[in-house]
Amino acid sequence: MTGESGVTSTYQPGGMPRLEVRDVTVRFAGLTALDGVSFTVEPGTVHAVIGPNGAGKSTCFNVLSGVYRATSGSVRLGGAELTTLRPHEVAALGVARTFQNIALSPRLPVRDNLLLGRHRLTRSGFVAAGLRLPRARREERTHEARVAEIAAFVGLADLLGTPVGLLPYGVRKRVELARALAMEPRLLLLDEPVAGMNSGERVEMADLIVSVRESLGISILLVEHDMGMVMRLADRVTVLDFGRRIADGPPAEVQNDPKVIGAYLGTEEGS
Ligand SMILES: Nc1ncnc2c1ncn2[C@@H]1O[C@H](COP(=O)(O)OP(=O)(O)OP(=O)(O)O)[C@@H](O)[C@H]1O
Question: 1-94+187-271, what's its fold?
Answer without folding.
Answer: Rossmann fold (3.40.50)
